[in-house]
Write a structure and sequence with these properties.
The complex is a heterodimer of chains A (313) and B (419). With 313 residues, chain A is an all-alpha fold. Chain A contains 14 helices and no strands. Chain B folds into 2 domains: 180 residues, 3-Layer(aba) Sandwich (D-Maltodextrin-Binding Protein, domain 2); 203 residues, D-Maltodextrin-Binding Protein, domain 2 (3-Layer(aba) Sandwich), CATH 3.40.190.10. In chain B, helix 2 runs antiparallel to helix 16, helix 10 runs antiparallel to helix 12 and helix 12 crosses helix 19. The chains are: A mainly alpha (313), B alpha/beta (419). Chains A and B meet through helix 13 of A and helix 1, helix 3, helix 4, helix 18 and helix 19 of B.
């Protein structure tokens, strides 16, 4: 390495114009050169291993990867597993409610804070703060709050309301909604921040003109402001969706998939199969299913996004 | 500049390599025994090995169920940098044995006569393909019923000998305002309960047919329906907040007298003694209902990974023989709450329940009723065990699920897992 470099220096010393050419080339391609290592890393570590996971899902791998191919057998086993069915229906319930409520609360908070309230900065920080916590902390805290014998229910009982009942956390039918509560609590503030920025970006003249025409506050928000925030809704939707699909730590901390496997999500299912049950190929098959679902949602979004950019450009 | 740093780097590399070649016998041990008493127990082994001139390099991966350690271990083996030894449950020995990565200990075993000193029911599970590939450190018992003596005296009940008696005792405790059964609603704890009900109602042969052989006729039998019926009855003997509770918090309920009984392996003794509870004074241990004369066991073993380095292999052999050292077996198992994997160790220094477990095991060995635990990876491989865990936990928490539905799910799940 060092010898070739010094040889090169010798050469370039004799031919000054070569060195100028190199500098020019470097100047023109500096950004590409700087990006190259990260592109290679992403190609291998993200896309390479995606392909590898796909390959593993077609093999008989159990504890360690093997390359004995069995076709789509692992997918058949995956779809015959009742826990996987629970996980799939859970991700739709959780995803839908989590995205819906986070967006609604975030927007409502943003609109309220936008009313030029006193101590806005202070309130904003309070609502944004949960975002600084990890889902593990959120999950553990809510586990205590929602536990009937420790948290909310016990507190209300001690206040004298003996018949109060809030046992969703230990109820197989409702436990999935406790994940929604904790998730919404964590993410609403962040959504609020995004919406607030969008609200502040709206042209004041438009609003003033509407007021002159006699529009009320509700009408202004409904007809003028919110319709202009389409791109922000898109951003919020995509960010929340990837959070919903990834929410593994929240489940682990809050319910560990219980009671009675009722709060398993595809991500926890995948982890259990791969590392707890020595079913690496089934785990890989479930990962591919998650990937395909996300692709089915993200690709149309990217398509619309790219087409719009092109139209604008 | 570049040349100089390259030279330095290569010098350092060769230096470190020559160090590792010149090193004496050493073992790198991967384990998840990180809690106070467990780490203290392992320290005895470390000192013993250092006396024999073997350097101990510790690679703990915390996490009580060992799932974290398994992840790290797999990565190490896939990248060809396996540790010398790793802690594993009985069925994990079989799984690693099938991968062909475990060192053959047969010569050492023959020289030291392991077949005469190790509990005979463990031998098939530490062997793979006719070779001995692991060494058992301890034997826990999972069919224990722990009960708070003061609570029992106050209510005026005796430890139940059958599941029917268990239900009667529980009703009395309920009437006295005490939670009969301290349980944590985690799949493995519910599976623990399940295996004790299977054994208590069905007996040892039925237990083997279901847990070890997964015989379909037995799983579909009337006896299995009774097992699930009993689990359903027990729904009312646990408090409302049990889902997700850790086992040691359930033991705390027993200690405080909020609950009367707990069915749990003998690691519960650690919690009880931390709370200054005396065996046979403050708390009692009796075999789980209907399992008197039976011994449900689980073991922690060390398996050793094949290596070309002769010094490492010598270290592995030293460690394997040190694990079976009588003094270590005694010191470690007293701390861990388990009993020795050897059958010829003096039990004088063990507590009341430890002595009882040792005597019960000897009795069970004579009648062939010493049985591997399902919930703790001794009876069946991880995939099939997982099916039991899923179905039993779902059944226990889903109040409107019928025994027949549970049995159907077991049969279907086991078929799929067996492929």
């Amino acid at each position: 390495m060092s010898t070739t470099l010094s040889e090169y220096r010798g050469v370039s010393g004799r031919h000054g114009e070569n060195s100028a050419g190199l500098r020019l080339w470097l100047g023109q391609n500096a950004s590409q050169l700087a990006l190259a290592p990260s592109v290679v890393v992403v190609l291998v570590v993200v896309y390479g291993f995606m392909v590898w996971t796909g390959v593993i899902s077609l093999t008989a791998s159990k504890m360690l990867p093997t390359y004995q191919f069995v076709g789509f057998e692992q997918y058949e086993r995956l779809w015959s597993n009742p826990i996987w069915h629970i996980a799939v229906s859970n991700i739709f319930i959780f995803g839908f409610l989590f995205i819906g409520f986070s967006t609604a609360f975030g927007l409502a908070l943003a609109i309220l804070i936008d009313q030029k309230v006193r101590a806005e900065g202070f309130l904003r920080t309070i609502y944004l703060y949960p975002m600084a916590l990890s889902f593990i902390v959120t999950g553990t805290a809510w586990k205590w709050i929602l536990n009937p014998g420790l948290g909310l229910e016990r507190m209300v009982h001690m206040w004298g309301w003996e018949s109060f009942k809030f046992d969703w956390l230990v109820n197989t039918q409702y436990a999935i909604y406790t994940l929604v509560i904790a998730g919404v609590w964590q993410s609403s503030g962040f959504v609020m921040a995004l919406f607030l920025a969008a609200l502040r970006g709206i042209d004041d003249d438009l609003i003033k003109a509407a007021r002159l025409d006699g529009a009320g506050t509700v009408q202004i928000y409904r007809r003028i402001i919110i319709p202009q925030m389409g791109p922000t809704f898109m951003t919020v939707g995509v960010i929340l969706m990837q959070q919903a699909v990834k929410s593994f730590d929240l489940v682990v901390a809050l319910t560990s998939g219980g009671p009675g496997n009722s709060t398993n999500l595809p991500a926890t299912f995948m982890y259990t199969q791969t590392f707890g049950r020595d079913q690496m190929a089934v785990g890989a098959a479930s990962a591919i299913m998650i990937f395909m679902t996300v692709t089915a949602i993200i690709v149309p979004y990217l398509y619309v996004d790219i087409r719009n950019n092109r139209n604008e450009g | 500049m570049i040349t100089r740093s390259l030279v330095i780097a290569s010098l350092m590399l060769s230096a470190s390599m020559s160090v590792s070649i010149a090193a004496d016998e050493s073992v790198e041990v991967m384990h998840y025994w990180t809690s106070g008493s467990e780490a203290a127990g392992l320290n005895v082994l470390k000192q013993l090995l250092e006396k024999r001139g073997v350097t101990w390099s510790d690679s703990p991966v915390a996490g009580g169920t060992g799932m974290n350690m398994v992840q790290v271990l797999r990565a190490r083996i896939a990248s060809d940098t396996a540790p010398s030894a790793a802690q594993m449950h009985a069925q994990q020995v079989q799984a690693w044995g099938a991968e062909g990565v475990l060192t053959d200990l047969s010569d050492l075993a023959k020289k030291q006569g392991w077949d005469k000193i190790i509990a005979p029911e463990l031998l098939p599970l530490i062997s793979y393909d006719g070779k001995i590939v692991a060494v058992p450190v301890n034997v826990h018992r999972s069919n224990w019923l722990w009960y708070n003596k003061k609570v029992f005296d106050k209510v005026g009940v005796q430890p139940p000998a059958t599941w029917e008696e268990f239900n009667q005792v529980s009703e009395k405790l309920l009437a006295a305002g005490i939670t009969p059964l301290a349980l944590g609603g985690q799949p493995w704890q519910e599976a623990d309960l399940f295996e004790n009900v299977v054994l208590g109602i069905g007996g040892a042969d039925f237990y083997r047919k279901v847990m070890v052989e997964q015989d379909e006729a037995s799983i579909k039998s009337e006896t299995m329906t009774k097992v699930f019926d009993q689990l359903r009855i027990m729904n009312k003997f646990v408090d409302a907040n049990y889902p997700g509770r850790d086992w040691n918090l359930a033991t705390q309920m027993l200690i405080k007298g909020e609950a009367g009984m707990q069915i749990m392996g003998d690691w519960a003794k650690g919690e009880l003694s931390l709370a200054k509870m005396e065996p046979n004074v403050d708390y009692g241990c009796s075999p789980a209902p209907g399992t008197k004369g039976d011994y449900v066991w689980l073991t922690d073993n060390f398996g050793f990974f094949t290596t070309k380095d002769a010094n490492r292999e010598k270290g592995q052999m030293e460690m394997a023989s040190a694990i079976l050292d009588k003094d270590f077996q005694q010191a470690f198992n007293i701390k861990k709450g388990s009993i020795p994997s050897r059958v010829d160790v003096s039990m004088d220094k063990f507590d009341y329940c430890g002595k009882a477990a040792y005597a019960d095991r000897a009795e069970a060995q004579k009648t062939n009723t010493s049985l591997p635990s399902l919930a703790h990876n001794a009876a069946s491989n991880a995939a099939k065990t997982g099916v039991f865990l899923d179905v039993v936990s779902t059944f226990f928490e889903t109040k409107d699920m019928t025994p027949q539905q549970a049995i159907d799910q077991l049969v279907a799940g086991l078929k799929s897992a067996g492929q």
